[in-house]
Amino acid sequence: MKRRFVVTLTLLFMLFGAGYGLSLHVLRKSSAELDMIIALHKVEDLRQDLERQIVLSKQALEVSGTVFANNLDHVVTTVRGLESQMNACQDCHHAGASSILIQDGVELVDRYKLGFSRFVTAIGDNALRQKMQIEVARIGEQIVNLVRRIRHVATPHLKQRTAAAQARIKQSTQVLGLVFMVTFLSALALAWWFTRRATRPTLQLIDAANRIADGHLGVQIEHRERGSIGNLLREFNEMSTSLQTQAQAVENRTAEILKTRDMALVTLARLAESRDAETGRHLERIAAYSRSIAAALRDSPYADCIDERFIDQLEKSSPLHDIGKVGIPDAILRKPSRLTDEEFNVMREHTIIGASTLRSVIDDFDDHTFLEMGMEIAYCHHEKWDGSGYPRHLVGEEIPLSARIVAVSDAYDCITTKRVYKPAYDHEEAVRRILKDRGRHFDPVVVDAFLACQGEFDTIRETYSEQFEGTSIGSGTSPAKIVPLRA
Predict the structure, then answer these.
(1) Which of 53, 60, 207, 263 is deepest in the core (most CB within 10 A)?
(2) Which of the listed residues 147, 175, 200 is the one where a domain comes to its end?
(3) pLDDT value of residue 126
(4) 142 close to 176: Cβ distance less than 8 angstroms
(5) Do 174 and 44 share a structural domain?
(6) Domain with 108 in it: what CATH number?
(7) Interatomic CA distance for residues 320 and 400, integer angstroms
(8) Are residues 278 and 141 in the same domain?
(9) What pLDDT band is residue 253 in, cutting at 50, 70 and 90?
């Protein structure tokens, strides 16, 4: 990671350096071009000034010698400045020709001054004075012509150089903009690439940690990282594998514990049922019937109360509904005929005995959720929707939903199995009797759910049939006929 960082920074600095060097070169060329243009403009200004001074000198020569002398000094000064500026502009492609013209101009000015001196000293010799005046005028005319030649040489080149400089400056601006844009985009791309490379392991760790938090243990991160980051990712993979192994062990252990708990509940329920020789596989059928009805209630007004956890707990807790029978005397519990009113009152006590027993267990342990439903069922599965049940005479939804479901399951199994005091009736008779008590003994919504899933009850009866039971009265051994709601 460090080496990648150093290489990336090096490339970035090299890119910036190349852009800076190119930009500096362009700026230097543009600056030199601007200096040259300024010099050419000064040359042109001095040339124009010289032309004006020569014209004034010619006019002054005709008027007064003193005025001419003063103008001549201006001419000499201007020519010297023009010569200096031309020497400062040696890089111009026309500088050689201009310099020759300037030298000629300097010689002409010297001759101009000499002629004027002779003109001044020839005061007494009119012929010489006239001759010098003609000579000075001729030299002045030559100077004027020379200045015009300088103008023809310098001015077109000045315009060309100015136009070229403007084009070059424009080109330099475009190059600088392009260099800046390329440099900026390249730096941005390198920064994005390096940031992505640098943060990818961290993002992988966060994603893998979130997946583990969601329960996907054993997540592995594929990587090619080295150094400290690579060691961290390898340790994370090892930790994830270890968590998966431990979680699997915990899951297996939990499954064993839950299985042991379920076996203990079934054993406890069977222990109570073993005292009643007529019940056979009653517990298994009650659990299966109750699960079927609860599943059908998912499409009922009670859908908010029904989930898979509720259905599983109901299936495991429903066998505890008659656990209180362990406290009922054998003379009543195993009586081979109908019970008297006094005996039936004693039999009713099994709801209170079962609930009290389970309550004592719940009070002794913290994790007792699965027993609370069993206690509700044991206590309330003989309550009736209209309040005529026992032991508390609860009405309607005061009765726990689990107990209302088991009440229908228990009634159906009681009707369709043989007892010492009655024969086994068929499915149609059981449905008729349960439908008759809809809204009185049983919750109407639960009865509707029972009718919706009644086709499953025949399979349940066949699966948990009584091996020692005789032939049922009616068509109890035949496939169950589904009875419609309006029956």
Answers:
(1) 53
(2) 200
(3) 72
(4) no
(5) yes
(6) 1.10.287
(7) 15
(8) no
(9) confident
The residue written with tokens 């068509």 in the block is 475
3-state SS track over 145-170: HHHHHHHHHHHHHHHHHHHHHHHHHH
Q: Is the pLDDT of residue 385 over 50?
A: yes
Q: Is residue 318 part of a domain?
A: yes
CATH number assigned to the domain comprising residue 358: 1.10.3210.10
Is residue 162 within 8 A of residue 37, CB to CB? The reply is yes
Band of the pLDDT at 316, cuts 50, 70, 90? confident
SS3 content of the chain, % helix, strand, coil (to 5): 75, 0, 20
Whole-number Å distance between alpha carbons of 278 and 226: 74
- Residue 118 is part of which domain span? 2-200
- List, in sequence order, every residue forming a beta bridge with 422; answer none if it has no partner: 419
Do 196 and 285 fall within a single domain? no
Q: Tokens 């008027």, residue?
A: 63
Within 13 Å, how many C-alpha atoms sit on residue 416's CB side?
33
What does DSSP assign to residue 318?
G
For the record, the structure tokens of 69 come out as 């002398």
Could you give the CA distance from residue 351 to residue 323 in angstroms, rounded to a whole number?
A: 8
Element (H, E) at 130: helix 126-213
Check whether residue 298 and residue 158 sit in a common domain: no
Q: Which amino acid is at 329?
A: P
Residue 342, C-beta contacts closer than 8 angstroms, at least 6 positions apart: none
Q: What is the largest CA-CA distance in the chain?
A: 183
Looking at the structure, do residues 421 and 294 belong to the same domain, yes or no? yes
CA dist list (Å): 330 to 334, 417, 475: 5, 21, 33
Q: Which of 200, 227, 246 is the last residue of a domain?
A: 200
Going by C-alpha positions, the residue among 246, 383, 372 that lies closest to residue 313 is: 372
What tokens were used for 148? 């015009």
Residue 86 domain-assigned (yes or no): yes
| Contact assessment for residue 43 and residue 85, using Cβ atoms and an 8 Å cutoff | yes
User: Could you identify the residue written with the tokens 């040359």?
Assistant: 43
Residues 160 and 293 in one domain: no
Minimum mean pLDDT range among 70-84, 92-106, 190-204, 335-349: 92-106
DSSP at 328: S
